[in-house]
Design a protein that fits this description.
single chain; about 180 residues; mainly alpha; Chromosomal Replication Initiator Protein Dnaa, Chain: A; 2 domains; 8 helices; about 70% helix; about 0% strand; rod-shaped
Length: about 180
């Protein structure tokens, strides 16, 4: 199975940011819970969208099934996120993933996993091929060292249209030894 990655420039959407935040924070943004990690994830999501000018607070609220006033509260209290090191790290990861526009950032985890295994398999095949070619090169260099004069003589004295004839004569000569 081969997975294609498209490298064209894309403009990430709020849904893609939602996937990034949910993946990096390990929560569901629409979960109605008021657990700290879920609320912090919603604050991160809201702050990124609002500061990038992507959405109004009303639209951000609708995307989270929250009132616009809740989003205003999130934005007002963002400075608490900045004081919490772990939440700030998550915020920076989300922001970087969202702004880098790399297609892998918008892939589902299973697809990234499959892509990783596929690339590891390709690396193994290339490594084996590279090792085989190195061995062939060593053998060629060794043979060239032993028979270099003979190769050079044949290369200089035999024209391309004479190869079959010279091969027959050389074979007959060597069979007679």
């Amino acid at each position: 199975m081969e997975i294609q990655i498209h490298t064209k420039k894309i403009k990430p959407t709020s849904e893609e940011l939602k996937k990034i935040v949910e993946g990096l924070c390990g929560v569901k943004l629409k979960d109605p819970s008021r657990k700290r990690e879920i609320v912090e994830a919603r604050i991160i999501y809201s702050h990124i969208l609002h500061n990038m000018g992507r959405m109004t607070v009303s639209r951000i609220g609708r995307s989270l099934n929250k009132n616009h006033a809740t989003i205003l509260h999130y934005l007002k209290n963002f400075h608490y996120i900045e004081q919490n090191d772990l939440a700030l790290i998550k915020y920076n990861h989300c922001l970087n993933a969202f702004t880098q526009h790399h297609p892998v950032n918008f892939m589902e985890f299973d697809k990234v996993k499959k892509l990783t295994f596929s690339l590891e398999k390709q690396i193994n095949v290339l490594t084996l091929t590279n090792n085989r070619l190195k061995k062939e090169k060593e053998n060629y260099e060794k043979r060239n060292e032993e028979f270099g004069e003979l190769y050079s003589l044949i290369e200089n004295r035999v024209r391309p249209h004479q190869v079959k004839q010279v091969t027959k004569k050389l074979n007959a000569y060597l069979n007679g030894l």
